[in-house]
Amino acid sequence: MEKLKKMINERGEVKEGNVLKVDCFLNHQLDVEFLYEMGEELYRLFKDEGITKILTIEVSGIAIAAMAALFFKVPVVFAKKCESLNLDDDIYSGQVISYTKQKKYDIKISKRYLNEGDKLLIIDDFLAEGNAMECLIDVAKQSGAEVKGIGIVIEKGFQPGGKKIREAGYNLKSLAVVEDMKDGKIIFRDNN
Amino acid sequence: MEKLKKMINERGEVKEGNVLKVDCFLNHQLDVEFLYEMGEELYRLFKDEGITKILTIEVSGIAIAAMAALFFKVPVVFAKKCESLNLDDDIYSGQVISYTKQKKYDIKISKRYLNEGDKLLIIDDFLAEGNAMECLIDVAKQSGAEVKGIGIVIEKGFQPGGKKIREAGYNLKSLAVVEDMKDGKIIFRDNN
């Protein structure tokens, strides 16, 4: 999505440790009109997949998932992050090892809100190592729902998440793929 | 808002400890089309206040704040919760004592995203004791921004937050005020 690449170039900042900071429009301050446009683009990409529900993970996935859901006219369910799980029969759960934060956390979703028969679009703001995404896919599988698509705002193409998930056969599309950001210069993959 | 009261009656659950569970449409699964309607209602209530930015707090305030922001055509900034603050000159911060969770946490907002001259609408999903809201107001004050309105989805009228904040002179409006929920029966305040 050309407008997103432009936003990243103009407003993003490259920080130490392969961090791309876009908190001026995507994950601290939210440019909601632009999020709405990105939601519409995700709809264009996945509208023929018969999506019945959008799955995301707190915190930064929520706003973009909600915007996309306005176009799909389906509910959003967001996985909750927690330090440690209580034993609870009513949840699907998994564990994520975060590359950025160098720590583990658990995620959980109430069994009420994911069902066999659901056709899911999973949405998140970033894809890098892919650990959170693999965990979301696993949780979706526990419920018997089908993952029909995965929509990402910014994929870090120089980290292995996207490749792993595509090779596993998932229909993954990213609105922008950053191929490289050495020396603070952002190079995008031509993904049109 | 009559439709919200109906949703709470039909889909809400009263749990031990004065907990009103509405996670089927407001804070785990999101009924985004209904959130959009509530966003429009918040716009109707505060549209003459010259709002330049919407302030909320992660996690459950984000989706409703984003929907309202589509009508106001302004950015959203969400305060981040954190276990402990790093010393950082670039943030406004405060501490919240959570009644529901019986614990303390810190909140922070980058100084970049709140400015003197901003006219804020603060939005959150719930108001009960009012501790998180008082902290958001305090953080807003640190920045020199003006709090022009406070919009709440569900206010627990039998807890003191709403009264305290109105008495302090803030223009607080709630889409539904639960006056009582003893024995699992939900009684609303007539707030029309």
Keyword list:
two-stranded antiparallel ribbon; homodimer; Rossmann fold; eight-stranded mixed beta sheet; alpha/beta; 192 residues; globular; 5 helices
Characterize the structure shown:
The structure is a homodimer of 192-residue chains. In chain A, α2 (32-46) crosses α3 (61-72). In chain A, a hairpin with a 3-residue loop joins β1 (13-15) and β2. The first copy, chain A, is α/β, with parallel strands linked by helices and 192 residues long. The first copy, chain A, has one domain: Rossmann fold. Chain A contains 5 helices and 11 strands; from the N terminus they run αβββαβαββββαβαββ. The mean pLDDT of chain A is 94. Chain A is globular and about 50 Å long. The interface between A and B is medium-sized, with 28 and 28 residues. β3 of chain A pairs antiparallel with β5 of chain B.
Topology:
2 copies of one chain form a homodimer.
Chain A: H1 2-11, E1 13-15, E2 19-21, E3 29-30, H2 32-46, E4 53-57, H3 61-72, E5 76-82, E6 91-98, E7 103-110, E8 119-127, H4 131-143, E9 146-156, H5 161-167, E10 172-180, E11 187-188
Parallel strand pairs in A: 4-5, 4-8, 8-9, 9-10
Antiparallel strand pairs in A: 1-2, 5-7, 6-7, 10-11
